[in-house]
Amino acid sequence: MSSTASAQTPASNLHIALVGNPNCGKTSLFNQLTGSRQKVANYAGVTVERKEGFFTTPNGRAIRVLDLPGAYSLDSTSPDEDVTRDVCLGRHPSEPQPQMLVAIISATNLRLHLRFLLELKQLGLPVIVALNMMDEARRNGLKIDVAGLQADLGMSIVPVVSLNRAGVIPLLQALDLPLPPPPAPLPAEIDPHMEVRRLLAAYVIDPSTGKDRLTDRLDRIFLHPVWGPVILLVVLFVMFQTVFAWAQPLMDGLDSGISTFGQIVLKPLPDGILHSLLADGVIAGAGTVIVFLPQILILFLWILALEESGYLPRAAFLLDRLMALAGLSGRSFIPLLSSFACAIPGIMAARTIQNPRDRLVTILIAPLMTCSARLPVYTLLIGAFVPHRTVLGIFGLQGLVLFGLYAVAIVSGVIAARVMTRGVKSEEHPLLLELPPYRRPNLKSLALGLWQRAVMFLSRVGTIIVSLNVLLWALSSFPLPPAGAPGAAIDYSLAGRIGHLMQWVFAPIGFNWQICVSLIPGLAAREVAVSALATVYAIGATDDGAADKLLPLLSTQWSMATAFSLLAWYVYAPQCISTLAVMRRETGSIKTVLWAAAYLFGLAYLAAFLTYHITRAITGVP
Amino acid sequence: MSRRHIHRGTELMLYLDTLPKGGHAVIEKIEQRAPLDPIATRLGELGFVPGEAVQVVATGPVGRDPIAVRLGTSRFALRRGEAARVGLRAVS
């Protein structure tokens, strides 16, 4: 209970829950009621988003409101709906039963939403019905006898328009009234579908016979077997173009801004351990977090807008067959595609997948989609070891190898997903996706959604990433090398020693101790491995030319088998601590993270092992 | 998927997965694939109940799967296996 609520007299406090079908406008109503006074988290032990908010009615009643996951029925088929059912029935282990429900039904989809409303009558809880989207219904020529319906249902009905503040005032006023008595449950002998039909016939005049001109017309284009996929491709292309192109200058700006900030702030400090801790540990660590933010926000702006407009379910429809190959549904496509930029926004985007098993599998295979941070490593090794040659006259061999690395990763992801989705019961994997009417996205909802993502990322994920970076910094810096010692300082550090020890594990896949040592700082971010290698080979990692200088050195010092083995390793390895941190945050389960790390590590080791030995056999190097 | 027309007496039973794009029909029944078939139950909760009119508004780009169906004021995407549970009574 918030402090604002407990400051009121007990009688004026009220704990309510919003219940309704998906696409009834529940979330936008929640946003209108609570504004930014929201707390977003997960329900204990499940990957279901828990949203709670606070607001005060015109007469000063403090209300705590829980936005329950959208449900079609209390007879649940998913952990989302489990939460809704358990909270409504007062069975949830960590949530008290609300004192009253606000059931949201859309005037544009009464047939579906009234049925669920009838189910809610059985709960024995007071219910206020918020009849949403009245403006749209009126435009469609729909006439609803609200007074008649209200009397027949035995629940008070408040017409609302959840798109603006004025539209929810009637509901705020209704919440000032004394709690209504719980409605009488529907007698068991009455079929709810028949009851809905009766109610519709008695109180609703719908001249449109279900046709929604705009939605029908748009669906003819967007779901067209030829134009649909073409438009989707264009949308995705523009989307990722903006994620890369718009985000890049912002990211570069932030990057240089942070390092300038570091230089200015740390200028008075003498060189030494404290300087190094703040510069290389804290500021560099925070930098890696903040630099991701533009990409995450642009991606989420797209996803939220596509979701709100109703296009995202259509994309899922078009891609369902493709994703079925991996045992997933169309909803997994955008998170996976995003993961090619970076697994972090990809894993966060998996929030839009309702089916929890699909969501988990998508999160688990997201690291297999080759993220952009792997490119520097790929470029370095391919440049050093793959001859610059053309194949079949037009293809560069180096480009082909790069393409091959991406392809292998995708195929592995599909296979991994298939394996993970197979074991779980042999039940049919349902799609059964509602295609809601197209709507203009609401700016307030978009802004709130983006704000929540930014806060969540910076506060929850950021703290983990910064602390891990500081830890890695300490490992790579201590103990200090003895004065005048030859070689790189990192070689004398704990990380250096661990690297040497790791060689015992990594020798069978052809890694020398220099690689092992560079893998440790590479945990902070994959691309750091390149500069770490430069450090280990005492080239000096700070300047941009590190990769150029490394290239000839590596091609003489490493065998081809070692280089290819490292490439294979990088396709799979759970190298990026930030990814694991965001996985931990999104699934709420350290077990899942350990499992993901173990399976990716196993795959990486196996792939590197095979690559190493096969390459050795082919090249004839002992 | 092959077209399934099952003869019951003299009547021809048509299923939603075989209804062509643009085709209208009225639902006759929902078939359970197993006892307490969760998909059949969910279809019922979504409003796929005998007597309701359905129309196929779109079919997927690959293998005409999934299909998009209008049911009253709602639209749903169904995989063919799901739609095959919905028995129809054809309307001319």
Explain how this protein is built.
Chain A: Keywords: Membrane, Transmembrane, Transmembrane helix. Chain A: It comes from Gluconobacter vitians. Chain A: InterPro entries: Fe2_transport_prot_B_C (IPR011640), FeoB_GTPase (IPR050860), G_FEOB_dom (IPR030389), Gate_dom (IPR011642), GTP-bd (IPR006073), P-loop_NTPase (IPR027417). The complex is a heterodimer of chains A (622) and B (92). Chain A has 622 residues and is of the alpha/beta class. Chain A has a domain of 209 residues: P-loop containing nucleotide triphosphate hydrolases (Rossmann fold, 3-Layer(aba) Sandwich). Chain A is built from 26 helices and twelve strands. In chain A, the strands form three sheets. A seven-stranded mixed sheet of chain A has the order 2-3-4-1-5-6-8, sandwiched between helices. A two-stranded antiparallel sheet of chain A has the order 7-9. Chain A has a two-stranded antiparallel sheet with strand order 10-11. In chain A, a hairpin with a 6-residue loop joins strand 2 and strand 3. Chain A is elongated. Chain B is mainly beta. Chain B has one domain: Ferrous iron transport protein A (FeoA) (SH3 type barrels, Roll). Helix content of chain B is 13%, strand content 46%. Chain B is built from two helices and seven strands. In chain B, strands 1-2-7-3-4-5-6 form a seven-stranded antiparallel sheet. Chain B is globular and about 30 Å long. Chains A and B meet through helix 4, helix 9, helix 13 and strand 12 of A and helix 1, strand 4, strand 5 and strand 6 of B.
